[in-house]
Amino acid sequence: MGQVTLQPDYTDVASEENHLLDKLRNEFEGRPDDLIPMLQYVQKTLGYLPEGILLEISRLTSLPAARVFGVVTFYAQFRLKPIGKYTVKLCRGTACHVNASAQILEDVCSYLNVEPGETTKDGLFTLEIVACFGSCALAPVVVIDESVYGLMNSSKTRKLLDGLRKEQREETSQHP
Predict the structure, then answer these.
(1) Taking the alpha carbons of 41, 44, 48, 53 in that order, is the dihedral positive or negative?
(2) Residue 32: DSSP 8-state
(3) What is the pLDDT of residue 86?
(4) Quick check: 90 and 144 in contact, CB under 8 A?
(5) Quick count: other Cβ atoms within 10 Å of Cβ 149?
(6) pLDDT tens for each residue of 22-61
(7) How do the domains of the chain map onto residue ranges?
(8) Is 50 exceeded by the pLDDT of residue 173?
(9) Is 88 helix (H, G, I), strand (E, B) or coil?
(10) 3-state helix, strand, coil in the chain (%, to 5)
(11) Cα 141 to Cα 153: distance, rounded to the nearest angstrom
(12) CATH tag, 86-174
């Protein structure tokens, strides 16, 4: 039986993604060793890894698509779906757990109407659970993007999320 070669149709790739593909072709040599740096570059630029881009990276690096997808799904740093403007991470380590992080998680899931790993319908928040941030003295801890908030409870967390929603509404009203 002959080898099947995947030849994706890139006509449906958005112009932003086409520009990104041009940069990948120009900035990387296309060696198999370039795989992870290419994935990191795309992830940093788009916030996730679209399937069409992954197929093109497969072609550029001469790696089978299954290998590229295997790497992407193996490492937690890579995402196959777009994420929200803000990434909300709730710690579930021991210190946070004994300080009611489970209740915070339950309340945040209800408030945002998402489960861990999901993004709100408005694209504003992505909710994640983290095993431990190493900030146990501040337990329970919530991290939004790179900002750490300690000694949290459900009320404080909701106020924080409300503040970000308000900020987003103000930005949207200033730049419709």
Answers:
(1) negative
(2) G
(3) 95
(4) no
(5) 15
(6) 899 999 998 999 999 999 999 999 989 999 999 999 999 9
(7) 10-74, 86-174
(8) yes
(9) strand
(10) 55, 10, 35
(11) 9
(12) 3.40.30.10
